[in-house]
């Protein structure tokens, strides 16, 4: 009976490890080089043969060959990044995705605004309905302005 419970415990912990494998990002850890040097870093991504990290001492972003790391550091890198298809430029791609997402939101808001302008009179029969449609148009205009300001702010931040 004890061996059966032990087996259940082992299987349960194995399942938990499989489910939570690589999910605790960002990772603050110490990486050691094969020659004995070590540093405190924040792991960012892993490619096929390289790991990208940010040093905690000065915040500088660096890349290192995984083969040049100590065995324990290699294990840390492989543990926290189970998918080896992560690009070294993932930080840039996230920024690009954010900007393209804001552009998509702007296109959707402009389309909604156009449709409301075109159909506001036929859809509204009373003064209250017309005021509601007018208020909706103004709300969409405000959303468009807010999104444009966020986009400009984000792009000016990226240019710094």
Describe the SSE topology.
Elements: H1 2-20, E1 27-32, E2 38-46, E3 50-55, E4 61-65, H2 71-80, H3 90-123, H4 127-159
Antiparallel strand pairs: 1-2, 2-3, 3-4
Low-confidence stretches: 83-92
Overall mean confidence score, pLDDT: 76
Largest sheet strand order: 1-2-3-4
Order of helices and strands: HEEEEHHH
SS elements, strand count: 4
Described by the principal axes of the CA atoms, the overall outline is elongated
SSE-based structural type: alpha+beta
Number of domains: 2
Terminal CA distance: 65 Å
- β-strand percent reads 15-25%
Rg estimate, integer Å: 26 Å
Which sheet architecture does the biggest sheet show? Answer: 4 strands, antiparallel
Q: What share of residues is helical?
A: 55-70%
Query: Helix tally?
Result: 4
Task: Describe the structure using short key phrases.
2 domains; alpha+beta; single chain; 160 residues
Structure description:
- By secondary structure, this protein is an alpha+beta fold.
- The chain has two domains: about 25-85, SH3 type barrels; about 90-160.
- Helix content is about 60%, strand content about 15%.
- It has four helices and four strands, in the order αββββααα.
- Strands 1-2-3-4 form a four-stranded antiparallel sheet, with helices on one face.
- Helix 3 packs antiparallel against helix 4 (about 125-160).
- The longest helix is centred in the middle third of the chain and has 34 residues, at about 90-125.
- The chain starts with a helix and ends with a helix.
């Amino acid at each position: 009976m004890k061996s059966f419970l032990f087996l259940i415990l082992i299987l349960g912990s194995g399942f938990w490890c499989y489910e939570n494998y690589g999910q605790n990002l960002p990772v603050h850890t110490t990486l050691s080089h094969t020659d004995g040097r070590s540093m405190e870093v924040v792991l960012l991504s892993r490619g096929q043969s390289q790991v990208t990290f940010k040093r905690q001492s000065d915040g500088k972003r660096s890349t290192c060959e995984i083969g040049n790391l100590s065995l324990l550091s290699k294990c840390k890198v492989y543990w926290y990044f189970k998918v080896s298809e992560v690009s070294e430029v993932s930080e840039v791609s996230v920024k690009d995705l954010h900007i393209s997402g804001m552009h998509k939101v702007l296109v959707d808001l402009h389309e909604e605004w156009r449709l409301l302008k075109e159909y506001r009179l036929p859809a509204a029969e009373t003064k209250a309905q017309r005021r509601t449609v007018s208020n909706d148009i103004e709300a969409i205009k405000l959303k468009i302005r807010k999104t444009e300001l966020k986009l400009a702010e984000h792009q000016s931040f990226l240019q710094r």
